[in-house]
Automatic annotation (TrEMBL):
Highest taxon, organism lineage: Bacteria
Pfam family, one: YhzD
Classification via InterPro entries: YhzD
Official protein name in the record: YhzD family protein
Length: 61
């Protein structure tokens, strides 16, 4: 299990949310991250999901 970090920002750079969660692998983390963004209606906001190794799994600007 790894710890993943999801962040979302306003267009002006203001932080909307910053959450960490665990997942068994990158694919499951991407699914969980997309679900979290969908639940919070943040898919169209600037966001990123980073793996424990620092790899960007999701990114939207």
């Amino acid at each position: 299990m790894g710890t993943y970090k999801l962040t979302a920002y306003e267009k002006n750079g203001e932080l909307i949310t910053e959450e960490t969660f665990t997942a068994e692998n990158d694919d499951l983390a991407k699914e969980k991250g997309l679900a979290m963004l969908t639940d919070k209606n943040l898919l169209e906001q600037t966001h990123r999901l980073a793996s424990p190794a620092g790899k960007l799994l999701l990114f939207h600007s």
